[in-house]
Design goal:
CATH architecture of one domain: Up-down Bundle
CATH class of one domain: Mainly Alpha
Distance between the termini: 6 Å
Low-confidence stretches: 1-26
Number of helices: 12
Mean pLDDT: 87
Strand order of the largest sheet: 2-3-5-6
Strand content: 5-15%
Largest sheet: 4 strands, antiparallel
């Protein structure tokens, strides 16, 4: 199954919206929405395009296997000139139709159809993986943007405190050591902001690469309306989907098709031990310059010859070729079955890990929120105490560090929980609700 192909008009409008400087954005940066990022990635990602091409190649293979049931038709013309300047010409039109080849052609067609079904399931999983990857990277960009806001606020607060300390130092209320210490803290806050900006740029470039566009960090990721599509699954739903994923997830279904295709390859190999029966027809004629009749009469009447017959080929000894091909195909089939078992074990592990991470993140939400409230209250308390000389700058700096850390933890766990919800759906193979929310339909 493939995602609906979006029109060129829609894609063009997305790119224009992405690059236009006239859009409303912070700091004059164009805004990129999550839905836009996903659609652009599905349109431009090279890996996905390669998987689409793989489906097309398999479609050609199926068409060719169907064509092998038809008779062939060939024409041959040859001429020669002797030393006595005699010229001769021969023509031949021949056709062959296979009547029986041990059902090798039927098995080959079924094998090609099963291979195509497997590649189509691989394409479905590739699309799901790309959507999940784009979503995760978009969340990372949002996290980095929020971190910069925290770092900017922290730098501003440190600058304000530095101004206060400079004023108090000038009037002799604070020592020079406090001034030097706060200068260092302000520089550290500035350095952390620069590092956060670099991290944001790196995450933006990575997202652009996944989207299949030329790298640029000149945009701002818009915070999505998570309530519009967020959906928390119950434990009962998760249990049912976990069981179904072992047989219904796209990559598992692809491997199941590969096993069935291997069955057909065994039948193809066994056909080498059976007789082969062909029906053939041939129409030939010739011309020679030393004949009395003209060219047209010789070709049409005098030398015209038609042949219709059947050819039966019975294998007696093929140097064990068919037997070895059957044995090899059987081993390949068992390998495909082992691959399926490995993938099912991997699916079980991925679901278990995703579920554990999701539940752990859920538990962290309340803890981090409480920590942030406590850190904010502690910071306010130390700020008041420092103004009246009841606490040291070291205590105030420590309280501010703990508050900044708690503020970032709160932002990180917020986006992490959303990412874990989508990750759980991805590993369960239950991406339909997310696709529907993004306006992506399957055809």
């Amino acid at each position: 199954m493939c995602l609906r192909t979006f029109s060129a008009t829609l894609f063009t409008s997305i790119i224009l919206a992405f690059t236009s400087l006239g859009l409303c954005a912070t700091q004059n940066e164009p805004v990129l929405a999550l839905e836009q990022a996903v659609r652009i990635a599905l349109k431009n990602n090279p890996s996905l395009a390669q998987q689409v091409n793989a489906v097309k190649i398999n479609e050609i293979s199926v068409f060719q296997q169907k064509a092998d049931f038809y008779p062939d038709l060939s024409a041959a013309i040859s001429g020669q000139n002797s030393a006595r300047d005699d010229f001769s010409l021969s023509t031949e039109l021949s056709s062959t139709l296979n009547l029986f080849n041990g059902f090798a052609d039927t098995a080959a067609l079924k094998n090609a159809e099963l291979e195509m079904s497997a590649v189509q399931e691989d394409l479905t999983r590739e699309q799901q993986s790309l959507v999940f990857e784009t979503f995760s990277q978009f969340m990372q960009v949002l996290t980095s943007q929020a971190l910069i806001q925290v770092k900017e606020e922290n730098l501003e607060e440190n600058r304000k405190l530095l101004e206060q300390i400079e004023t108090f130092h000038q009037v002799g209320r604070l020592s020079l050591s406090d001034l030097y210490q706060q200068q260092a803290e302000t520089k550290q806050a500035q350095l952390e902001l620069i590092e956060a900006q670099q991290s944001l740029n790196d995450n933006k470039l990575l997202l652009m690469q996944t989207m299949g566009l030329n790298p640029t960090s000149a945009y701002r990721a818009a915070d999505p309306d998570f309530d519009r599509w967020a959906r928390v699954m119950t434990d009962e739903e998760i249990a049912k989907l976990s069981e179904a994923a072992l047989n219904e997830r796209a990559d598992i279904k692809a491997q199941q098709y590969q096993i069935k295709a291997a069955d057909q390859q065994i039948l193809q190999a066994k056909a080498g031990q059976l007789p082969k029966l062909d029906l053939f027809a041939k129409l030939s004629s010739g011309y020679s310059s030393w004949g009395d009749e003209p060219l047209s009469e010789q070709l049409q009447d005098d030398n015209l010859d038609a042949t219709l017959g059947m050819s039966l080929s019975i294998p007696i000894f093929d140097r064990h070729l068919a037997r070895n091909q059957i044995a090899t195909a059987g081993i390949e089939q068992r390998n495909e079955q082992l691959t399926l078992k490995q993938k099912q074990l991997q699916v079980g592990l991925e679901i278990a890990q995703a579920l554990q991470e999701y539940r752990t993140t859920q538990q962290q939400v309340d803890v981090v929120q409480s920590k942030l409230i406590s850190a904010r209250q502690a910071l306010q308390s130390y700020e008041e105490r420092y103004r009246v000389g009841a606490s040291t700058l070291v205590e105030l700096t420590q309280a501010r560090t703990e508050y900044v850390t708690a503020a970032f933890d709160q932002i990180e766990v917020k986006y992490s929980l959303i990412t874990q919800e989508v990750a759980l759906a991805y590993y369960l193979g239950n991406m339909k609700p997310l696709f529907a929310a993004f306006g992506l339909e399957k055809s």
